[in-house]
Design goal:
Trafficking protein particle complex subunit 10, golgi apparatus, alpha+beta, TPR-like_helical_dom_sf, 1216 residues, disordered N terminus, five-stranded parallel beta sheet, TRAPPC10/Trs130_N
Length: 1216
């Protein structure tokens, strides 16, 4: 029979299981307990939870105990671990009499107790065995009848609450099926009970939490309630949900503490404000620290005890979840938060007690992690544990200082008493760590026992932390621990050991630009150097600290006096002076030459004014301030010649960049922060702002390490840089100078006798035995001494200049300028206005020379790429009496106009049109437009048809001018005309008109032929119709006899070709074309015009109009026909052949004439001689167009009415 439940059950451990009570036949259940306990957790069940939480698969286990009425939950009891989730009644009764006599009554009492305590989760198990049937065969009922009777008596509406288990101890298929069904039903009922009871418990817990603002609410009571829920989740092996319950408790308590610090305190927090009397640290080797839990339950736990217990439970669950590195992260946050919470709650503790608690907790967490991870995992995850090592080191150091263990004299009596009190607060060592030689308790107790033990433990922890930080690349943290070690060695009286740690830390701080840590470390370094007797290093560090703005004025004065005291110690002039960098002492701010130029003539008085910014807090008297000057003798300066414009200009004022002595060098400067605002808005209402903040976008640049070494000229060096003055250099000296804090002005007289370039290289300030040297003056400071004759500089200007007061004599090609008297080394500036006359078409000799002997090149004109203006380049030369060389000048002028002409004809009358286009971006006034004959040899009369004498020509606009050409005698063959006008800018107030000329030539202006055309409809019709043939009759009339020029063209009066030919004629070719007409037959042909005046020839062509309406006449073009010429007697007389063929074509009717193209191809190649002779290409006839105005078409622009045809047509229209 199963053992009854013990009086003190083991609860709150991982062995806890859901309680299931068993009533009825205990012997029967005992026989089935082993297989039931083994098979129940084998199959997982899906647990569907409320509030939309994701379902989970869980394995159910149970703690089967004998049913007792004491196990049933009392009213108000919220303990879930002692809550029976399911009640089972076991029976194997199959006899009716026995059932009626005892079993039914027992079942009724059992069910009555459950109903009395509100327990509705129960099940009746009827076990059927074959042995029981054999023993009592007479009085038994069928199994189904007994089960039905039990269901009728107890399970009226819940038939599934009665389960039959057949032969459970036999290994048969029926038994296995019965077991499977029973186990499934048991898991289902148990899971249903879990869901219902946990849901009811969570609702009660939520209700209790919502009452937290009411008087009398206790966090400790609520803590125990929610921890019950965490225990249940842990019992079900749902560690994530269990951890969530503790995290919620942690967050709730933290918020109350923060509110207390803000002035909104809760009454129940008073119990946590009581003085702390025990600081035993974290205890992570127990799953549950029952002592601290009992204290929380009674409301007597301190803040450290509550935090310790809460973290212990979180650590246990994180270890089960295999997240040990999160334990270290949470532990570090816990320790820092506890320190702050103790301050917020104003909890009183013995001095050093909190350090003991932190030290013990750090080591306890580290030992717990080492116990669940192997060595490889620990080495790979050093970054998670090194923070605890460093924190423990810091707290042990603090305890050592407090207990007098870090001093040369040892601890005093007061410090010994404090040590005893601290050890008393640790209490007795816990049983879990008694047998551990490296327990945190033993380490702390041993470290506080003696100076030697403390030093051994502290150095062990410190070096371990440094090695870990270095291994993971966290050099800043490693340097910080090293700096702490340096402080330890300094207090131990060992500055030699401390120096290396301070140098490493200072180097990192300087390279990364941490201003305040640099200052603090330099103070420690100065103390260390002073103890070691390193005078030069100490003076350099003192100079840095004296000019450091991060220190108070008293501290700066102290370090400055240290330098002045050393400078006044030795009066021996032969003693070796200590050279320090001037960057620590003063900064060169500005250098200015007097006069304000760095290029002076030989013998000129020149001074240099230095502006020095003293970094010292007090006035410092200087024995001497000197500047070294390097002289460079340049070739060519001593010969009296000049480099003229090639002389490099040197600035008269040089500015030097300033920087803070404690700041970092520019090469290692920290980049500026790039901040961006971030906003968290409500998902439901975007207008609601939940929170806002700032984020740094370039954190990777701001926080990265910078290991680059600074420049030797910068004041950020860890070790001194040797600085020396150059020997043999020229020195500029100024004695008895007192540098006041801030800006100081010092004036030097510099040498300017020798010609060459002088460079200021170094600056040295002497204070007794100390020299502050600036080894390199940067940027470069130079001045030049020269000797030269006057120089001429010419700069073309684009704007109009004012008149200069100069005496000017001008001739055709030479202009002489007399300059007024000018003082030495001064500049005389004057301006001249150069006027360029726009050339019409200048004709200059090829080898015209300028006054200085240069060959004049004809100015070239080209088009400006931006505004299409024509540009003209003009060259000038300027001669000076003091130089044998001339200064050439190239000037570019742009012509703002473009002009073009055209000849217009109206019969025999002629008109000349000139178009003037403004291609510039300026508006001009135009007046006095004239057109004249260039040579005035003919009796022409040009009558202007322009009505406006004064016009405004806007930008990109054109003006047209027309003249009527009349003549008294014969029209000349060639007309040479000149168009002239005056123009001025419209923006000028006083108009200064300038001339513009445009020359052009017109040739062959006489009208030689006139063409008239007439379109006639078909016979019997009055109008032309589209699609019907019409007749075109052309009449070509010669208006004048051919002149000599026309004869020279070879197209007129072909004399001597045929001796018998008496008729002189001119061959013309006509061509008819039109887009609205179709020519039937030939569209072109040859016409032979007699040489007599008024000779006429008519040609008829058939046309067909393509469209209806008023159609323009087709185009009629007339060309000169030039036959091939015979140049040698041996060439066959092809001209006569062509001429004969042409005459035959002309004599035929128009319809029978062959096509011109076909005619031109006839006889183009003629074979001479036999096949052995080479064939030669014969000259071809060609067509030459007439010049504009030589042929006048009277029908140009005429139209004819064409009616549509009368044919009916079918028009198909598709509508969509």
């Amino acid at each position: 029979m199963m053992e009854p439940q013990e009086e003190k059950p083991i609860i709150y451990t991982m062995e806890n299981k859901p309680i299931v009570t068993c009533a009825g036949d205990q012997a029967l259940f005992t026989s089935l307990y082993t297989p039931l306990a083994q098979q129940l957790p084998r199959e997982p069940m899906e647990w569907k939870r409320s509030y939309g939480r994701a379902p989970k698969m869980i394995h159910l286990e149970a703690n089967f105990v004998q049913f007792k009425e004491e196990l049933l939950p009392k009213e108000g009891n919220k303990a879930l671990l002692t809550f029976p989730f399911l009640h089972i009644y076991w029976t194997d009764c199959c006899d009716t009499e026995v059932y009626k006599a005892s079993v039914r009554d027992n079942m009724m009492r059992w069910q009555g107790n459950l109903r009395l305590h509100g327990s509705a989760d129960w099940v009746i198990v009827v076990v059927e065995t074959s042995d029981a049937k054999k023993k009592n065969k007479t009085n038994i009922l069928p199994r189904s009848s007994l089960v039905d009777k039990i269901r009728n008596d107890f399970c009226n509406k819940q038939n599934d609450r009665c389960v039959v288990l057949s032969d459970p101890l036999k290994n048969s298929s029926r038994s296995q099926e019965s077991w499977s069904a029973f186990l499934l039903k048991l898991r289902t009922l148990l899971l249903m009970s879990f869901t219902q009871n946990l849901g009811r418990f969570e609702e009660d817990m939520r209700t209790l939490r919502e009452k937290r603002n009411q008087p009398g609410w206790s966090f400790c009571d609520y803590f125990m309630v929610q921890e019950e829920l965490a225990f249940v989740f842990e019992m079900l092996q749902q560690f994530e949900d269990a951890l969530l319950q503790y995290d919620e408790l942690d967050a709730l308590f933290t918020q109350y503490v923060l509110n207390f610090g803000a002035g909104d305190g809760a009454n129940w927090l008073g119990s946590f404000c009581s003085p702390v009397k025990s600081w035993t640290g974290l205890l992570l080797r127990r799953p549950i620290d029952m002592e601290k839990r009992d204290g929380i339950q009674r409301g007597q736990a301190s803040l450290l005890e509550l935090r310790s217990y809460l973290f212990c439970r979180q650590c246990t669950l994180l270890i089960f979840l295999q997240r040990p590195w999160e334990v270290t992260q949470r532990a570090l946050e816990l320790l820092h938060n506890c320190v702050q919470e103790l301050c917020l709650l104003e909890v009183s503790m013995l001095e050093g007690a909190l350090d003991c608690w932190v030290f013990l907790s750090c080591l306890e967490v580290l030992h717990r992690i080492e116990g669940c991870c192997d060595q490889a995992q620990l080495e790979a995850n050093v970054s998670h544990t090194v923070g605890l090592w460093a924190y423990a080191t810091d707290k042990l150091k603090s305890l050592g200082y407090m207990c007098g263990l870090v001093s040369e004299r040892g601890p005093l009596s007061l410090e010994l008493n404090r040590t005893v009190d601290l050890l008393a607060g640790l209490g007795d060592e816990k049983a879990e760590t008694v047998h551990s030689l490296q327990s945190p308790y033993k380490k702390l107790k041993e470290a506080l026992s003696s100076v030697e033990a403390f030093e051994r433990h502290y150095l062990e922890l410190s070096h371990a932390a440094v090695e870990m930080y270095t291994a993971i690349g966290r050099m800043r943290s490693a340097r910080l621990v090293g700096k702490s070690l340096a402080e330890f060695y300094m207090r131990k009286g060992d500055p030699e050991q401390a120096e290396s740690f301070l140098q490493n830390a200072l180097g990192s701080y300087v390279s990364e630009g941490w201003s305040l840590p640099v200052t603090h470390t330099r103070k420690q370094m100065a103390e260390c150097q002073k103890l070691l007797g390193k005078t030069e290093n100490y003076l350099q560090t003192s100079a840095l600290l004296a000019g450091d703005a991060n220190l108070t004025n008293e501290e700066r004065i102290h370090f400055c006096q240290e330098i002045l005291t050393f400078a006044d110690q030795s009066t021996d002039s032969k003693a070796q002076k200590v050279a320090l960098s001037m960057s620590y002492f003063a900064q060169l701010k500005q250098l200015q030459f007097r006069p304000a130029t760095a290029t002076v003539h030989s013998g000129t008085a020149l001074q240099v004014e230095l502006c020095l910014r003293s970094l010292m807090p007090v006035a410092v008297p200087l024995e001497q301030l000197a500047a070294s000057v390097h002289f460079n003798l340049e070739q060519g300066e001593t010969n009296g010649k000049t480099r003229g414009p090639q002389r490099r200009p040197y600035p008269g004022t040089v500015l030097f960049p300033l920087g803070n002595s404690s700041a970092m060098p520019p090469s290692a400067a920290v980049p500026s922060l790039e901040l961006e605002e971030i906003q968290d808005r409500s998902p439901s209402d975007p207008r609601t702002l939940n929170s806002t903040g700032m984020v740094c976008k370039n954190t990777h640049l701001v926080m990265r390490r910078r290991d680059s070494s600074p420049s030797p000229d910068t004041p950020n060096l860890v070790s001194p840089v040797p600085v020396v003055m150059e020997d043999g250099a020229k020195m500029l000296m100024s004695g008895d100078v007192t540098l006041l804090p801030g800006n100081n002005s010092i004036v030097f007289s510099v040498p300017s006798q020798e010609l060459g370039t002088y460079t200021l290289r170094q600056l040295c300030a002497t204070v007794g035995q100390v020299q502050f040297v600036l080894p390199h003056i940067s940027p470069l400071v130079q001045y030049e001494v020269y000797s030269q004759e006057p120089q001429l500089t010419v700069e073309p200007l684009t704007e109009r200049v004012d008149e200069s007061v100069l005496f000017i004599q001008s001739s055709d090609k030479v202009t002489s300028i007399s300059l007024p008297p000018t003082p030495p080394y001064h500049t005389l500036e004057f301006q001249l206005e150069v006027l360029c006359v726009i050339p019409s078409d200048p004709v200059r000799p090829e080898n015209q020379r300028l006054t200085n002997g240069e060959i004049h090149h004809r100015p070239r004109s080209y088009s400006h790429p931006d505004n299409h203006m024509t540009a003209i380049n003009q060259r000038m030369s300027v001669d000076c009496p003091w130089s044998i060389y001339s200064t050439p000048i190239s000037l570019t002028f742009y012509i703002p106009f473009k002009a073009k002409h055209s000849l217009l004809s109206a019969g025999n009358r002629k008109y000349i049109q000139v178009c003037l286009q403004n291609v510039s971006d300026v508006n001009f006034h135009l007046m006095d437009q004239r057109l004249t004959e260039k040579h005035h040899e003919s009796s022409l009369e040009l009558q202007s048809l322009n009505t406006k004498a004064h016009q405004l020509v806007c930008s990109k606009q054109s003006v047209y001018c027309v003249w009527d050409v009349r003549w008294k005698e014969n029209m000349p063959v060639c007309l040479q005309c000149v168009f002239s006008a005056s123009f001025s800018s419209a923006s000028e107030e006083v108009s200064a008109f300038k001339p513009y000329h445009y020359e052009f030539q017109l040739e062959r202006v006489t009208t030689l032929y006139s063409v008239r055309a007439e379109i006639m409809p078909a016979a019997g019709q009055q109008n032309c119709h589209s699609g019907s043939l019409c007749g075109l009759e052309m009449s070509i009339t010669r208006l004048a006899e051919p002149d000599d020029d026309e004869e020279d063209d070879g197209g007129t009066e072909e004399k001597g070709q045929t001796e018998t030919e008496e008729v002189c004629s001119t061959k013309l070719m006509y061509e008819v074309a039109g887009s609205s007409w179709v020519v039937y037959g030939r569209s072109s042909g040859l016409v032979s015009m007699p040489a007599d005046a008024n000779a006429n020839h008519r040609v008829q062509v058939e046309l067909m109009p393509l469209f209806a309406g008023h159609l323009p006449f087709p185009d009629i073009k007339v060309f000169k026909y030039l036959p091939p010429s015979a140049n040698s007697a041996s060439q066959p007389d092809t001209d006569s052949c062509v001429e004969n063929g042409m005459l035959s074509l002309i004599d035929r009717p128009l319809d029978d004439q062959g096509d011109t193209a076909s005619f031109c191809s006839q006889g183009s190649v003629h074979s001479v001689g036999s096949g052995e002779q080479q064939s030669r290409v014969l000259p071809m006839p060609r067509l030459e167009p007439f010049s504009p105005g030589q042929v006048f078409n009277h029908s140009q622009g005429c139209q004819v009415l064409v009616l549509p045809s009368t044919d009916d047509c079918v028009l198909e229209i598709n509508a969509t």
